[in-house]
Amino acid sequence: MEGLFKLWTSFLASGVEAVAGLIIAFAALQACIRALLIFLDRSRAAAQYEGIQAERIRLRLGRWLALALEFELGADILRTAIAPTWTEVGQLAAIAAIRTLLNYFLQQEIDRAVRRDPERAHPVQDEPASVSSVNSAIGKLKNEPD
Amino acid sequence: MSLTDLLHFTLWASCIEFVGALLLVGYVLGALFLLLRTRNILHAQRLVADGAIACLSFKLAGTLLKTIELRTWQQILMLCAILALRTILKRFFVWERMRLQRLQDQEKHA
């Protein structure tokens, strides 16, 4: 019976890790597509805002990665119930420590970026608005006479 | 399952830990559903942090029950190592939850 619980817990942990893997894959894909779009947009106004948009893509990717890392830490918590040997406990501790540190520094970086530019303080739902604000600024620049 | 099995504390401890695991998976699925519906990363992160804290509390309960059947130094040291790992993870998730709460409060006030 106890073995059955451990088996199911390992399945659940693998499931949670799979979800984290999917999130990382989709976030990386989204960041690649957005970066490619910026790279291919060769207009003068777009070039002026290239840095801002690149930073936004980086931060958005960072947020998705932080979420995926939390999912992975969740899986690590589940695995603490099924680590019978010292080697496995040690490996689990090392991996959990690496993920916790990565997540901590990633969050610090996001917080610093938000402090630098308070407009990014509302990170997700206003993301389209932030992009649209950049786009409207680009539009204004395009309409200005040279 | 015989009557003697029911008197094994490790079995009950495993049951409690498994309930914690199910709780975490429930929160993770909730976060995933929320992400698909609203794409609100902050809220999803907070849900996962809540789930992790709740799951760790259940696991602590299970581990405390297991201390009844500890016999050897090997078992005691192993339990200490796992408890230390869980404590560090819990501290991190509590810090994360407070940070997310602060961010969400800022979002509400803005």
From TrEMBL, chain A:
Residues annotated as signal peptide: none
Protein name: DUF1622 domain-containing protein
Annotated source species: Thermosporothrix sp. COM3
Region (Disordered): 117-146
Recorded coiled-coil stretches: none
TrEMBL record, chain B:
UniProt keywords, alphabetically: Membrane, Transmembrane, Transmembrane helix
The species this protein was found in: Thermosporothrix sp. COM3
Transmembrane portions of the chain: 6-35
Protein name: DUF1622 domain-containing protein
Keyword Transmembrane appears in the UniProt entry: yes
Top-level taxon of the source organism: Bacteria
